[in-house]
Amino acid sequence: MDNVTIKDIAKALNLSTSTVSRALRGSYEINAETKRLVMEYAERLNYRPNPIALSLKENRSRAIGVIVPQIANYFFSQAINGIEAIAYNRGYHVIIFQTHESYEREVVNMQQAVSRRVDGLLISLSSETSDVTHLRELQDQGMPVVLFDRVSSELNATQVVADNFKGAFDATEHLIWSGRRRIAHLTIPPYLSITQERLAGYRAALEKHGIPYDENLVRYGTFGPDEVGPMVDELLALEPRPDAFFTASDRLATGCLAALHKRQLRIPEDVALIGFTNMTVAELLSPAMSTVVQPAQEIGQVAVERLIELIERKQKAAPPSVIKIPTTLIARDSTRAAVG
């Protein structure tokens, strides 16, 4: 069926056009069953809102700005997939910016988003961002802002994150249960929220099992392309050397695996390895790599749903909160139990 309209849906379901319109926008005024009927019927007929018509009618751009550190990062590409799917079905289009881990570019991207008259902003902070004054000023001007993944406690805004503490706790405890005691942690810059949460989970698991925290076993990366090898060498030079590595990002996980192979260490016989990642190829690596899975797509979906609620309900929207999405631990060959 071509060019399906709200009137077509209303006639088929014996509803008013205003009810169908509000149901498609996810309005709190429409009950859940009516919303379900309308959304299912609209999906079946491949109905899509016309953003241009909506923007003229409502005096809004029907655009959402999304600022991420790097689109090529698997987590962010999947989060964007989730954002776009929800936004598209709600009649919004998405304008994507990337900071390449630069605070300066983040500020410029934000200004560009405002100049394009976006209705709201989703942002994951760059690794250089410690001052969020630019975002606070944007909020003061009335712009709805939602943070995801990399967030700041200094901003009074809704934040959608993975349960980083629990994910890191589970990863570390899994290594302990597999017989490891000297667990090294490779992580990203220390001032990032996700770094602090994952380090706290790592420390809590060690403490629970009576293993002293040793800061010599922790290394902080800076997103450099060739930094993992030297970090692995430093850790392997310790006495006694680590019997496991827990990494806090995709890049560190694959870099660590390559570095250990290059040094002819057997995984998991000589050293175990677990990542904190979304990589779909983790099970195809040699050995198949254990990992904590971040629900990137779900994080993106929840973040944009909360942003659209802020845009459309304004003062009636839910107050700022921290929404934690559960992680999942998948155990594979790289953390098989130590023998003997």
From TrEMBL:
<dbReference type="InterPro" id="IPR000843">
    <property type="entry name" value="HTH_LacI"/>
</dbReference>
<dbReference type="InterPro" id="IPR028082">
    <property type="entry name" value="Peripla_BP_I"/>
</dbReference>
<keyword id="KW-0238">DNA-binding</keyword>
<dbReference type="InterPro" id="IPR046335">
    <property type="entry name" value="LacI/GalR-like_sensor"/>
</dbReference>
<dbReference type="Pfam" id="PF00356">
    <property type="entry name" value="LacI"/>
</dbReference>
<keyword id="KW-0804">Transcription</keyword>
<dbReference type="GO" id="GO:0000976">
    <property type="term" value="F:transcription cis-regulatory region binding"/>
</dbReference>
<dbReference type="Pfam" id="PF13377">
    <property type="entry name" value="Peripla_BP_3"/>
</dbReference>
<feature type="domain" description="HTH lacI-type">
    <location>
        <begin position="4"/>
        <end position="58"/>
    </location>
</feature>
<keyword id="KW-0805">Transcription regulation</keyword>
<dbReference type="InterPro" id="IPR010982">
    <property type="entry name" value="Lambda_DNA-bd_dom_sf"/>
</dbReference>
<protein>
    <submittedName>
        <fullName>LacI family transcriptional regulator</fullName>
    </submittedName>
</protein>
<dbReference type="GO" id="GO:0003700">
    <property type="term" value="F:DNA-binding transcription factor activity"/>
</dbReference>
